[in-house]
Write a structure and sequence with these properties.
- By secondary structure, this protein is an alpha+beta fold.
- The chain has a domain at about 5-205: Ribosomal Protein S5, domain 2 (2-Layer Sandwich), CATH 3.30.230.
- Helix content is about 40%, strand content about 20%.
- The chain has helices at about 5-15, 95-110, 135-150, 155-170, 175-185, 230-240, 255-260, 270-295, 295-315, 320-330, 360-375; strands at about 25-35, 45-60, 65-70, 80-85, 115-125, 190-195, 200-205, 210-215, 335-340, 350-355, 380, 390.
- Strands 1, 2, 3, 4, 5, 6, 7 and 12 form an eight-stranded mixed sheet that branches. Strands 9-10-8-11 form a four-stranded antiparallel sheet.
């Protein structure tokens, strides 16, 4: 996050909209989830942190009721234009549906825009990496709307509005984690969030002598038309079956013992596996945060590895590319833990690696991955950053 991104987005704004007089620039971060995957829509715990990369928005109010959007990352797409009053029927399936959806959600909550705006977007999150570029785009749009129009909303509200717009405008049935991590990020801290009660606490990430490494499979993932919504439906079916046996409102409320005692109530064996992941992953996340607080990073890493195995075998949201990255990482001395992160079906792994093993990690995994997959993986050493800001 910083001056370079601000300069790029302002330059893009000037190119499309003429000049930058009166333009304000905002930033919202992407996120990586350390552990607690696919638990957020199952009423469980998650443990994400905001990154120091994300989405920049240069915005200026207009005199009329038009909204105009352009992306520095996709210059060929030109300008997308829509009237505020036409948002309900303006879905195109393109990137601009995300900021449009946020405006639509604000309007639906009674936050009416008296005039439109021009917006240029620039993201330094690798596209399709599973680091929540869509959530960052939603949060930066909401943050800009609050600043420009004086709307009385908190950062937590911005997360809920972003999720609502993605669910109901974009048709992506995501949980709250991504938007919450982007809107509520805190430098050098992860967020331990109970998605059932929305209670959360910040946990310092102290990795003495270690680095957080993100490895991109460079296999693009598209969640809206992927298996993501199907997983959510399978968990809902499992919960419905379990409710014939146990008084429970979400899978996140079950202990492992309670699940094991009642799981034969679930009629579909696939739904058994999905529910098992949700229950066990939730308990892993609770244990992992405690291990970290106790300074036991090694145990945290073991739980990360178990999380990957569960996502690979029970939830089936991993992919061969991510499996290669994680499984090769586990073989390297000095790798504390490694797992697929995000929605899955592509995207990235997140690893905790001891300083002395970082070079070995990249030099060993890079060639093996290219040989097995046919193209290269990308490696990032990213910092844990704050939530949205005006630059």
């Amino acid at each position: 996050m910083g001056q370079e991104g601000k300069n790029i987005v302002l330059e893009g704004f000037a190119k499309q909209f003429g000049d930058t007089e009166g333009v304000r620039v905002f930033f919202a971060p992407g996120r990586v989830n350390l552990i607690g995957e696919h638990t957020d829509y199952n009423g469980g715990h998650v443990f994400p942190c905001a990154l120091d990369i994300g989405t920049y928005a240069a915005v200026r109010k207009r005199e009329d009721r038009l909204l105009r959007f352009c992306s520095v990352n996709i210059p060929k797409a030109g300008i997308t234009e829509v009237a505020i009053d036409d948002l309900d029927k303006a879905r195109t399936g393109q990137w601009a549906d995300y900021p449009k959806g946020v405006v639509w959600a604000f309007e639906g909550r009674g936050f009416k825009l008296d005039q439109g705006f021009d917006m240029a977007i620039y993201g330094d999150i690798p596209n399709g990496a599973g680091l929540s570029s869509s959530a960052a785009l939603e949060v930066v749009t909401g943050f800009a709307l609050r600043a420009l129009y004086g709307f009385d909303v908190t950062n937590q509200d911005l997360a809920f509005i972003g999720q609502y717009s993605e669910n109901n405008y974009n048709g992506m049935n995501c949980g709250i984690m991504d938007q919450f991590a982007s809107a509520m990020g805190k430098k050098d801290h992860a967020i331990f969030l109970d998605t059932n009660t929305m209670k959360f606490e910040y946990a310092p990430i102290v990795l003495d002598g270690m680095k957080l490494l993100i490895t991109n499979t460079n296999k693009k993932h598209s969640l809206v038309d992927s298996e993501y919504n199907a997983r959510r439906e399978q968990c809902a079916r499992a919960l419905k079956d379990l409710q014939t046996r146990v008084k429970v409102g979400s899978l996140g409320e079950l202990s492992i013992e309670e699940f094991e005692a009642a799981k034969d109530a679930i009629t579909d064996p696939v739904c058994v596996r999905r529910a098992r992941h949700a229950v066990y992953e939730n308990q892993r996340t609770i244990e992992a945060v405690k291990a970290l607080a106790d300074g036991n990073v090694e145990r945290f890493g073991e739980l990360m590895n178990q999380s990957h195995v569960s996502l690979r075998d029970d939830y089936e949201t991993s992919c061969p590319e991510a499996d290669i990255l994680a499984e090769e990482a586990w073989k390297i001395p000095g790798v504390v833990g490694s797992r697929i992160t995000g929605g899955g079906f592509g995207g990235c792994t997140v690893s905790i690696v001891k300083d002395e093993a970082v070079d070995t990690f990249v030099e060993t995994i890079g060639p093996i991955y290219k040989e097995k997959v046919g193209y290269e993986a990308s490696f990032y050493r990213l910092g844990i950053g704050d939530g949205p800001v005006e630059l």
